[in-house]
C-alpha cells in the first residue's frame, strides 16, 4: 500500500476495514507504544492496551460517521485518542489509590484483626519509604496538612508539585502493599 493521505484512510476504513486496520496497526503500533510510554510514564502493556483501544475507537468513529474527515495526520488523531485514554486511566488509578489508602487509614478505629493487620502493614511500608514520600504521606494522612502547608514546609514551588509527588508516592506505597499481600 502506497503512502496515503488523510481522506484515503477514511475511505479505505469504510470500504475495506480489515486490511486497512491491519495496515494502520502495523504502521503505527511501535511508534504509538513508544510515545505513550514516554509521555505518560506507563508500562508497555498499558501502552499496548491504549493503542489497541485507540484503533477500535478510530474504526468505530469512522463506521458511525463521527469521523468523516481528518484535519490532521492519522497518527496525530490516534495520539489524541491515546492521550485521552491514558489521562482517564491515570485519573481513575489515582482515585482508586487515594480511596484505598484512605480506607485503610479510616479503618484504624475498627477492631477487626484484618483491619489491624492492614493498618500495621501500611505503617510498616510507610516507615520504610524514603523521603520525600514518607514525609508527604505522613503529613497529608496523619497530620492532616493541606497541600499548600506541605509545599511550604518542604520548600516545594507550589501545591501542584506536592500533589504530583503525593500521587507517585501513594502509587509506590500501594504497589508495595499489594506485593506484601500476595506474599502472605
- Structural class label: mainly alpha
CA radius of gyration:
22 Å
Pattern of helices and strands: HHHHHHHH
Mean pLDDT: 81
Please indicate the count of domains: 2
Structural features, described:
This protein has 184 residues and is an all-alpha fold. It has 2 domains: 6-92, Rna Polymerase Sigma Factor, Chain: A, CATH 1.10.1740; 110-182, Orthogonal Bundle (Arc Repressor Mutant, subunit A), CATH 1.10.10. Helix content is 78%, strand content 0%. It has 8 helices and no strands. The chain has helices at 6-15, 17-40, 44-63, 74-106, 113-128, 133-142, 147-153, 159-182. Helix 2 packs across helix 4 (74-106) and helix 3 (44-63) crosses helix 4. The longest helix has 33 residues, at 74-106.
In short:
Helix content is 78%, strand content 0%.
List keywords for this structure.
about 180 residues; mainly alpha; Rna Polymerase Sigma Factor, Chain: A; Arc Repressor Mutant, subunit A; 2 domains; 8 helices; about 80% helix
SSE inventory with pairings:
Elements lengths: L5 H10 L1 H24 L3 H20 L10 H33 L6 H16 L4 H10 L4 H7 L5 H24 L2
Amino acid at each position: 500500500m502506497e503512502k496515503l493521505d488523510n481522506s484515503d484512510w477514511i475511505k479505505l476504513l469504510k470500504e475495506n476495514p480489515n486490511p486497512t486496520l491491519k495496515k494502520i496497526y502495523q504502521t503505527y503500533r511501535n511508534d504509538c507504544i513508544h510515545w505513550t510510554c514516554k509521555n505518560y510514564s506507563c508500562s508497555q502493556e498499558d501502552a499496548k492496551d491504549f493503542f489497541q483501544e485507540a484503533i477500535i475507537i478510530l474504526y468505530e468513529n469512522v463506521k458511525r460517521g463521527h469521523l468523516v474527515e481528518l484535519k490532521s495526520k492519522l497518527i496525530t488523531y490516534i495520539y489524541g485518542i491515546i492521550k485521552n485514554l491514558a489521562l482517564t486511566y491515570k485519573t481513575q488509578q489515582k482515585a482508586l489509590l487515594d480511596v484505598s489508602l484512605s480506607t485503610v487509614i479510616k479503618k484504624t478505629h475498627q477492631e477487626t484483626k484484618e483491619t489491624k493487620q492492614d493498618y500495621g502493614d501500611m505503617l510498616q511500608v510507610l516507615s520504610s519509604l524514603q523521603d520525600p514520600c514518607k514525609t508527604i504521606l505522613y503529613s497529608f494522612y496523619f497530620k492532616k496538612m493541606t497541600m499548600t502547608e506541605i509545599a511550604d514546609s518542604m520548600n516545594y514551588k507550589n501545591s501542584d508539585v506536592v500533589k504530583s509527588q503525593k500521587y507517585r508516592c501513594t502509587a509506590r506505597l500501594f504497589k508495595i502493599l499489594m506485593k506484601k499481600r500476595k506474599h502472605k
